[in-house]
Design brief:
The chain is of the alpha/beta class. It has one domain: P-loop containing nucleotide triphosphate hydrolases (Rossmann fold), CATH 3.40.50. Helix content is 37%, strand content 17%. It is built from six helices and seven strands. The protein has helices at residues 16-24, 65-76, 117-120, 133-147, 152-170, 189-205; strands at 4-10, 32-36, 81-84, 97-100, 105-109, 125-130, 180-183. The strands form two sheets. A five-stranded parallel beta sheet has the order 2-5-1-6-7, with helices on both faces. The N and C termini lie close together (9 Å). 29% of the residues are buried.
Length: 207
């Protein structure tokens, strides 16, 4: 039996990372594995530039989509692979080698997974993590400052010139095809438990 493939997307700072971390808790590596689009960014020199010459990480051209699909197919066929963890171009951050092994449930996470047909066609379940724009903006500024060494001015520039235009083009129009929408303005606890129960039921019914 081929793995059950679950796609999870949502706007910047909607809480996808926290949701995914909590979702994996309680499952073994044989039951659930995660493949993140973030680890498929091309080298900085290949990232498209905006009209002001700034790298735009919110365009699909900045990601190696072919490599992502190839690795997803390996997992779907029961194979394993390794991939370098993307370090957001932070020189002081150690680059880890991630080991990905196939599992009963494969979680595919990323901004463009609904808008890219070669990824979308493999998804058995589509989940959209959502939150109010104002809340997401505050989360984004704090995250950029604390985790990615990005100044507030650049965060604002990227939000207005990269994040919002990209979401309006590649994310929001595809929200309507989601099977489940998790609202995360304050907490995703209820939605998380529903998806966890669904995973447990799937594993139980597909030994």
């Amino acid at each position: 039996m081929q793995p059950y493939i679950v796609g999870i997307t949502g706007g910047s700072a909607s809480g996808k990372t926290s949701f995914l971390r909590a979702l994996k808790e309680g499952f073994t590596q044989e039951e659930v594995c995660l493949i993140s689009f973030d680890n498929y960014y091309k080298p900085l020199a290949q990232i498209p530039l905006d009209n002001n010459g700034q790298p735009n990480f919110d365009e699909p051209e900045g990601l190696d989509i072919e490599a992502f699909v190839n690795d997803l197919m390996k997992l779907k066929n029961g194979e394993s692979y390794q991939r370098k963890e993307y370090n957001f171009n932070i020189e002081t951050m150690e680059t880890k080698i991630l080991q990905h092994n196939s599992a009963r449930i494969i979680i595919v996470e990323g901004l463009f997974i609904f808008s890219e047909p070669e990824i979308l066609k493999h998804l058995n379940l589509k989940i959209y993590v959502d939150a109010n724009n104002g809340i997401r903006w505050l989360r984004r500024v704090n995250r950029d400052r604390e985790e990615r060494q990005v100044k507030d001015e650049m965060s604002k520039y990227q939000w207005e010139n990269h994040v919002e235009p990209s979401e309006n083009k590649y994310l929001i129009p595809y929200k309507e095809i989601a099977d489940v929408i998790i609202l995360n303005n304050t907490s995703f606890a209820v939605g998380l438990q529903i998806i966890k129960d669904h995973f447990k039921q799937y594993i139980l019914c597909n030994p």
